[in-house]
Amino acid sequence: MNLFRTVVQPAALITAALLSLAEPAQAQHAGYRTLTIAGDTPTTVALFYPTAVADRVVPMGPWLPMVAPGAPASDARLKGLILISHGTGGTELNHHNLGTRLARDGYLVAAVRHAGDNWQDRSLVTSGRYLSERPQQLTRVLDALLASPEWGARIPAGRIGAVGHSAGGYSVLALAGAQADPQRSAQHCRTVQDDPGYCTLAKGSAGTESSGGQAASGASASAPQARIVSVPDRRIGAVVALAPMAVVFTPESLAAITVPVRVIMAEQDVVLPGKYHGGHVVANLRGARASTVAGAGHFAFMAQPTFPLPSAAGDAAANPPGFDRLAFLPTLDDQVAEFFAEQWR
User: Fold this and answer.
1) How many other CB atoms are found less than 10 A from the CB of residue 338?
2) Cα four-point dihedral sign 122, 124, 32, 340
3) Are 136 and 68 spatial neighbours (Cβ–Cβ below 8 Å)?
4) Are strands 43-51 and 29-37 parallel, antiparallel or unpaired?
5) Could you tell me if 258 and 200 are in contact, meaning their C-beta atoms sit under 8 angstroms apart?
6) CA–CA distance from 74 to each of 58, 111, 221, 323 (Å)?
7) pLDDT means per 10 residues in the chain (345 residues)?
8) Domain coordinates of the chain in residue numbers?
9) CB of 295 within 8 A of CB of 269?
10) At what angle do helices 167-176 and 130-147 cross, to 10 degrees?
11) Homologous superfamily (CATH) for 25-343
12) Whole-number Å distance between alpha carbons of 311 and 174
């Protein structure tokens, strides 16, 4: 028996060491901090990052992120930076599950609370600057992180990606080079009858929408926004668009996007139906990878809230009958993580 232990224990130690070298991300946890980007309208950002400190469930309103608040960042080399853009009226915690997963994989993740388009303040929606300002907020966050004494030198060149849901999907596609024409939205809503979720909200009457629905501005041809909006950020190297608001994009600009794009739609999305929005991207952007989640509604890509979140687009905590969001989210996290890993092997 003693001989058996003598032989096996070193082998076990070697195996464990090899596994730790092969999968370093598995030993990491998700740190969490918030920062504020200064400006005319300050922008709040949640940072998720790799740390050696054990994370735990920390209740934050309707969310239950598993994080290590304020923990020091791991010294390991970052795999890259991922920006996350929530839907209209949402929060920086809408996609905390994805943020923590990517952090454990070795990424710095910056989840933005969009100034003027969050659950507390939706003044941007009727400002006439929505289509340009929302993506530019992400650009300003990127500027700040790259200039940060703590993070700037640690962010690998050429490894910056973005994930966006709903209006956030619009925002990250705009950074990738898609150009918005407000007249397309107005024309769309004059000619179709089966996109009432989008068109009702696009009239500017979204009210107290609290989570991921369509951006209400931009459909009207108000003077400040009645022209082509082009706000690309060439530093963005890959994009994931989840149930994106996209009918407003010109086909030519979608076709001209050169960075890898992953589009994931929801089969039962009545807020931004795939055939008009995500499908519009896929039809015009050759090479875009696309899939549709069976049985899913518009809010399937958000973390599951612990209590109802009513909005003009519906209850963000509700799911279509038979759809298990909690079971789906790990699959989504895997798909997004694998997409970025493929770009930067």
Assistant:
1) 11
2) positive
3) no
4) antiparallel
5) no
6) 20, 19, 48, 37
7) 33 38 60 92 95 98 98 95 96 98 98 95 90 96 97 96 98 98 93 88 47 39 65 98 97 98 97 97 97 98 96 90 98 98 93
8) 25-343
9) no
10) 70
11) Alpha/Beta hydrolase fold, catalytic domain (3.40.50.1820)
12) 25
Strand order in the sheet with 261-266: 56-57, 66-69, 29-37, 43-51, 107-113, 80-85, 160-165, 238-242, 261-266, 289-293
Enumerate long-range contacts of 303-309, CB under 8 Å, 24 or more apart.
303/63, 303/64, 303/65, 303/93, 303/94, 303/95, 303/96, 303/97, 303/329, 304/329, 305/62, 305/63, 306/59, 306/62, 306/63, 306/64, 307/62, 309/62, 309/210, 309/211
The pTM of the full predicted model, rounded to 2 decimals, is 0.88
Please give the full DSSP string across 136-167, using - where no structure is assigned: HHHHHHHHHHHH-TTTGGGS-TT-EEEEEETH
Beta-bridge mates of residue 229: 180
The β-bridge relationship of strands 66-69 and 238-242 is unpaired
